[in-house]
Specification:
Layout: H1 11-17, E1 24-26, H2 39-45, E2 53-59, E3 62-67, E4 81-85, H3 93-96, E5 110-118, E6 131-137, E7 142-146, E8 154-158, E9 161-164, E10 171-175, E11 180-183, E12 189-193, E13 197-205, H4 209-222, H5 246-261, H6 263-275, H7 292-298, E14 303-306, E15 312-313, E16 323-326, E17 329-332, H8 338-346, E18 349-350, H9 352-355, H10 362-373, E19 377-380
Antiparallel strand pairs: 1-11, 2-3, 2-4, 4-5, 5-13, 6-11, 6-13, 7-10, 7-12, 8-9, 14-18, 14-19, 15-16, 16-17
Helix pairs in contact: 4-6, 7-10
Bound molecules: succinic acid (SIN) and cobalt (II) ion (CO).
Succinic acid (SIN) is lined by residues 82, 116, 123-124, 129, 133, 135, 189, 191, 199, 201.
């Protein structure tokens, strides 16, 4: 269990002063910090097929990048390289714990937990991210420089590495174990390991309008929506046939606006879109389907845990109508289950006593059977 100390700041003070505005170093944000996983375990995870990993190094002044899975690290020297794993929370329950202290931010904004191991001199180079990130220093020390937002020239240092030209530092610090560096989108930064070190980055990403629009278009196509043609039964004869009149322009715009204004359509898209997995899940569906009686009994004994990286949300507006979204799909349930569904969406672990009122509820048990069968939730110690 990691407990975050924002150095005398309340969560709201942090949000008001720094969130999306400026970078800040939070010294000893995690007191007595211990890496959630060992360097050896970390290197082992990057050998798995489903894991997105990268080895970044600098050889004779030239940046190099290789993508995993990796078979061995024996060819690498003692310094100037870094191993990065994306979505470590999907593959390590222990590492996923590091996300928990950041639950004062909504989970739909969360991207993933990225982690890196770097030897002395290792790093991924100077770059700009388009997400808010809390870089939590694990074992070892790293030197971090963060520049200001503004006009920066990006350069392709390697086909897989988009770097930024040298920048003046606003922040120039050595991070020690337990220190946290928060960086909003757009601020150039670079971390260089001073000794073998681990770093854990909790990243929050907001969608661009273009990704929303293209996701919305896919949703309309998949659900055969938005196929209505523009109608103009009241047309009058015009003189300038090459002209798109202001009225026609307005009705074309309105055609699209009508879809956005249709909350039934748009809210379902938002729920599906925001719960779609961003990185491959480590899904282990049950070999044999669970029986409802068994689930009902086990709910009284074991806690249930949500699979790392699984996204499950509800909209404030529609939860009481029996709608939530899990892993990119709309899930309908009996409206009376809303309080139980909130527990599943708001908490990673739900304890037997919290589910006691629902253990005998047939609709809830049947939903749980489904979620357990798919491997979306699993039993854990209470
Ligand atoms: C790293 O862990 O080396 C990179 C983290 C970042 O710059 O976002
Ligand atoms: Co970065």
């Amino acid at each position: 269990m990691y407990s975050l100390d924002l150095n005398q700041m309340s969560q709201n003070e942090f949000l008001t002063q720094y969130w999306q505005k400026k970078p800040v170093v939070i010294r000893q944000g995690f007191k007595d910090f211990v890496d959630p996983i060992s360097m050896d375990e970390f290197a082992g995870i990057a050998m798995e097929e489903a894991v997105q990993s990268r080895l970044v190094s600098k050889q004779d002044g030239e940046w190099q990048a290789e993508f995993g899975p990796f078979e061995s690290y024996d060819h690498l020297g003692e310094q100037d390289w870094s191993l990065v794993i994306q979505a470590l929370d999907n593959f390590s329950e222990e590492a996923a714990e590091l996300i928990e202290p950041f639950r004062f931010l909504p989970h739909w904004r969360l991207d993933d937990l990225m982690a890196s191991f770097a030897t002395k001199g290792g790093g991924v180079g100077p770059h700009i991210d388009n997400y808010d990130v809390f870089i939590c220093q694990g074992t070892g020390k790293r030197h971090w420089r963060v520049g200001d937002r503004g006009e920066h020239t990006e350069v392709i240092a390697h086909e897989a590495l988009l770097h930024v030209e040298p920048f003046e530092a606003l922040i120039d610090v050595e991070l020690e174990t337990g220190d946290i560096l928060y960086i909003p989108p757009g601020f150039p930064h670079e971390g260089i390991a001073l000794e073998p070190s681990m770093s854990f980055s909790v990243g929050f990403r907001a969608n661009s309008a273009i990704s929303l629009l293209s996701g919305f278009a896919d949703h309309l196509i998949d659900n055969d929506l938005g196929t209505q043609l523009l109608e103009d039964p009241n047309r009058q004869a015009i003189k300038n046939s090459g002209e798109i009149t202001a009225q026609d322009y307005a009705s074309i715009k309105q055609q699209l606006q009508n879809l956005l204004d249709d909350d039934k359509v748009f809210s379902h898209f938002v729920g599906n879109f925001l719960t779609s997995a961003k990185h491959e899940l480590d899904l282990m569906p049950s070999d044999e389907p669970f029986a409802p009686e068994e689930v009902s009994e086990l709910l009284g004994i074991h806690a249930i845990k949500r699979l790392g990286g699984l996204r499950a949300f509800y909209l404030e507006e529609s939860i009481d109508n029996g709608v939530c979204y899990i892993n990119g799909e709309q899930v309908n349930f009996a409206a009376e289950l809303a309080p139980a569904i909130k527990l599943l969406c708001n908490q990673v672990v739900v304890m037997p006593d919290e589910l006691a009122p629902w253990r005998e509820n047939k609709a809830f048990v049947s939903l749980m059977v489904d979620l357990l069968d798919q491997g979306f939730w699993f039993w854990t110690e209470s």
